[in-house]
Amino acid sequence: MTIKDSTSNLFFLFLSLAISLTAFQYMSSVLGQINTLTEKEEASQSGNQTLHITKVATNSYTIASDASFIGSFNTTYHVVGGVESMDVSEDLIISTITQDFDALPAAGYVNDTSTSSRYQVDPNERNLPNPFATKGAIDEKIRSEIATSIENAVISDIAHGEIECIFGSSLNDFRCSFHG
Fold first, then answer.
1. Computed from CA positions of residues 33, 35, 39, 44, in that sequence, does the dihedral angle turn out positive or negative?
2. Hey, which bits of the chain come out as E strands?
């Protein structure tokens, strides 16, 4: 064996060792991440029960004089599960329901009659006031109703129950309530 062959063999030995060491470090890193994710998933699942949210939506239309008009509409959400899970998941429940409700075509037709002075027409104005609730007002009302129901659930000392939310064509009539 010549010096050239020895150097070449030594080079390949070091190259193989470097590749093996790099692969080992990478695999250790990946396995460490997998173990970390598994521990986090187990921790989050062990203390929480599954919540279920269902929705039933109804609406009506009136057809008159060759035109279609939206009539009344109603969307009912049911959040069922453990009260502790409802409390821990409050923000997620609120965001899930507000995003779903905001996506409904009827959401743009929710009336906001919370301030009667808003509907007094000023003779100097040429525009009629907008009778419809803003997305922000709708989201805030939904947030408030759900948060109040979760508070009521927590103080009820009931372990498992249901929050029922009924959102219709008037912002004033949006209601949520907890039932054990």
1. positive
2. 52-64, 67-82, 160-168, 175-179
pTM of the model as a whole: 0.67
Determine the pLDDT at residue 180: 87
Whole-angstrom distance, CA of residue 102 vs CA of residue 79: 18
Could you give the CA distance from residue 175 to residue 62 in angstroms, rounded to a whole number?
26
> What separation, in Å, do the N-terminal and C-terminal C-alpha atoms of the chain show?
86
In the numeric block, the tokens 């029922």 are attached to 164
Residue tagged 């209601």 (tokens): 175
Burial 58-68 (b: 16+ CB within 10 A, else e): ebeeeeeeeee
Question: Between 137 and 40, where is the model more confident?
Answer: 137
